[in-house]
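Box 3.1 A note on notation
Throughout this textbook, protein chains are presented in two layers. The first layer is the amino acid sequence; the second is a token string describing backbone geometry. Keep the layers aligned when reading.
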Amino acid sequence: MEKEWIDQAQRLIALLGLRGSPVAVTYSLEPDPRATPGRYWVCQALQEARGGAILDLTPQTSACNGGTFHLGLGPRPTGEADRALKKFLIQGEKLFCSLATVQRLRSLTLPPPLGLADHVLFAPLERAEKRPDLVVFAVNPEQACRLLTLATFMDGVPPRTESMGASCYTTITYPLLSGEINISLLDYTARRVRRFAAEELFLTIPYFRISNLMESIPYCSAGTAPIEVLPEFHRFLDHREEISRPDSQKEEDHGEEMAG
């Protein structure tokens, strides 16, 4: 298979002025022999891959129980482990006020892809060996706006986003299972621990949507097409301006015309 994503990565980095690479996320039955050894949190893996690293998360190398669950690499913790997690969410992280709110969020989000694959590979898009399932962009609001505009230029269908929840859910689980583009603000703990810039967020695009996005670049003003104010719109603006001017100003102008 031709690795068209290599050229796509280079073009998008240059177009948007990205800090770091878009991250390819690929579910695989085989490991990536180039992967850096070690154990990583999902939010950490995204930061490392953005900076050039290749990582392979498995049940053994995923350092976060929540990330292991949301990626589908293992079941949700049960028993004492689940009790400890709930107490941590409420009394430690202080992201929820009660057990009921924890359960409400759990029940209203998609279940993870448990058993889908043995490995979840993270790599800079330009270094990915296999066709990605998702491409994750670390962006500021303007860059996110441009990507969303390019992605919807061809069909005009707005994405149905889910921005609430763990970073690994909003960045990977939800877009993987729904096929939707998603914007993740990241959970506040991940933002602080992994030292994301205040203006940064994640925008995830399923790879099957990237082709239309790339085709839109030369035709869309969010890409390289210039914005043009057409004559018809000029006339519309002139008409609107005339209507909106106060009567006193119109009378003053009329008086000046008569005097001239």
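The chain has a mean pLDDT of 90. DSSP finds eleven helices and six strands in the chain.
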